Amino acid sequence: MELAKFKMQIPVFVIATIFMTIQANTIEHAGNSTVKHTEHDAWFQRKLAEAYNASLKAYHHDPHEVMNEFNHHVHRALEGDNSTRRGLGKYKGACLAQNPIDRCWRCKPNWAEDRKRLVRCVKGFGRRTTGGLRGAYYTVTDPSDDNVINPKPGTLRFAVLEPRPLWIIFARDMNIKLKAELMITSHKTIDGRGAQVHIANGAGITIQFADNVIIHNIKIHDIKPSIGGLIRDTHDHVGIRGADDGDGINIFASTNIWLDHLSMWNCKDGLIDVVKASTAITLSNNHFTRHDHVLLFGASDTDPADEIMQISLAFNHFGKGLVQRMPRCRYGFFHVLNNDYTHWIMYAIGGTSHPTIISQGNRFIAPNNPTAKMITNRNNMVGDEWKKWIWRSEGDEMVNGAYFVESGHPLDGKRFKKDFIKAKPGSYVRRLTRFSGVRKCRVGKSC
Ligand SMILES: *[C@@H]1O[C@H](CO)[C@@H](O)[C@H](O)[C@H]1NC(C)=O
Ligand SMILES: *[C@@H]1O[C@H](CO)[C@@H](O)[C@H](O)[C@H]1NC(C)=O
Ligand SMILES: *[C@@H]1O[C@H](CO)[C@@H](O)[C@H](O)[C@H]1NC(C)=O
Hints:
This protein has helices at 12-22, 24-30, 40-58, 63-77, 100-103, 156-161, 429-433; strands at 136-140, 166-170, 174-176, 182-184, 188-191, 197-200, 205-208, 211-216, 219-221, 229-234, 237-241, 249-252, 255-260, 263-265, 272-275, 279-284, 287-289, 291-293, 295-297, 310-314, 317-318, 322-324, 328-330, 333-337, 340-341, 349-352, 356-360, 363-365, 376-377, 391-394, 397-399. The protein is of the alpha/beta class and 447 residues long.
């Protein structure tokens, strides 16, 4: 259902007619800040143009430099670790953080007094993400989501729509069942540490026309498609959303996004979709399970604006019950670094429209099915065109017959301004990823 992402292009008057009667009261409640439906397309087009400008600004002209720098951080974090232990089995010892993102905060028992330290830890293309750093703390106390136009103070929806930076935390464990897509606006951190927070069994998360968002340490699962309708999408705008596909997280025309330590499974469409020239993104330390279409980076072969998409995918664990698209890429530049691929049914990494995919130091464990050993998938491209796409595998550890079909130029140190830094090989993956997914963080103890 990739093309269904263009949800705003559904003729607005059609939906407006449907909702005019049933939503009449709600429109009145929305009051001053509700735009007329007929203005909606113009609003959308203007936002899209502004977002593209923001993406051009966030785009890095030398992605190899960002890649190099990330690899350098991994080397530094592992300095002095000469052990050959493979880290099998459940870990029971003292807090151990071996990748450069975790090492920066996770074993510090005072994390609860120093939550904003997190922003110093992000690496890769999303490295400038600061989320709600400059804002106040906001504590979510109410798991309900009854009013998607004028949400109640204390709810997560109220917090993410506030027109100011906020660092959002949770008063206690909660299950949040969203009534409609949760539209996250710029300069927000959703920080689930200290509580067990599930966003589940309802609609998913949308980051649209937003800059600078962190989502950290929450569980997102069993997301269902929602029918759409009138939703407040920014503090001063209510718009009509078409029905959505039921993605866990949909990143649409947005910049500087960091998703870290999420556990995600069993959503209706994608777990995470990144579309419409979104860029400057890092997905790290996540644990993905039980899902078909896992990660989609670029939704359409007719959307070359995605050339400026730059995403780092690092230290994630692609686990049980996954089928394909880890990720499935178009056009942009994708650094796939030190992830652990322990399960897939069809393939791991795929793409069309000449994406650049640099796969470094991952561990790929192929399934037993002899026809599914190939990591890569190019959608049965015929002809030679694909041979020019730069898809390189470096230091990946291949297990159980896994193989990566490379194409394009080899990585060549001479093309870089700085010295070329080789990634840490796949043999380090287990220790870099073994603490992926949601962590139980108790105040006063390391996570
Ligand atoms: C709408 O709100 C703005 C500021 O919030 C105010 O200046 C304006 O007068 C309001 N308009 C109406 C029609 O109430
Ligand atoms: C995008 O940037 C260009 C060049 O800086 C500017 O002329 C244009 O007005 C911007 N467009 C929007 C919608 O912000
Ligand atoms: C690890 O190995 C490096 C290079 O061989 C050496 O310089 C370093 O002292 C070793 N570190 C430890 C903790 O043994």
